[in-house]
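Action item from last week, closing it out:
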Amino acid sequence: MRSIAIIAGKEVRDGMRNRWVVATTLLLAALALTLAFLGSAPTGTVKVSPLAVTIVSLSSLTIFLLPLIALLLSYDAIVGEIDRGTMALLLAYPVSRGEVLLGKFLGHLAILAFATILGYGAAGGALALTSGDIDRDSVLALAAMIGSSVLLGAVFISIGYLVSTLVRDRGTAGGIAIGVWLLFVLLYDMALLGLLVVDQGKTVTADSLNWLLLLNPADAYRLLNLTGFANVSMFSGMAGLTEQTRLGQPVLLAALALWVVLPLGLATGFFARRQL
């Protein structure tokens, strides 16, 4: 455990030195604050919770932005070290390859978690100070959204590590990482929508659609945040889906956790057998 903590600390220090932590935190905070105040501007007239509206906006932002940041953090974590020759030096110490990979993963996850909690927390805190209409359910929904956003980031860091252990150069890893982002964030839902239009409900039932959504971690995240709380699902336009879906919060959280464990486990196995 000490070796893992040391490697994780090194990754955090490298992130500070390369301005990753500062840049990511400022970007998330700036976008979150913008969405919080511009998106919730009309809520005083229609008497809805500004925090609930902000959660809907931040969830959509997270699906597009956080996976990209996570992949950019992790796509060259292994192959980049091998290209620079520093991986062989690191493995010369009494540390296993599994400890190296897990330590790097925890370090990158710490960077992303810090940026997400501080950036999104700033938006929630600013709304709490400027608006008196902040209810307990909205605060719980915001906390759940921040926690699940960190979990979504962990999913794509894990996928980035799998990519990094499979390829032989950083350029290929970067191209595959962008392809992974496009697949899960854009192409999968477009293909699923096309399937539903063509199928016309003949083959794809409501139950099978639920499980198809679990094959995409971005969709699992979307369902978790936009249907998990009644006050949020009402403003997200997904209140009807809340009544139809049988995927509760435990199932969605388990799916996201599985998306973290499986790619990371595969990355550990491939890295253990890789020739440096």
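Closing note: The CA atoms of residues 4 and 103 lie 4 Å apart.
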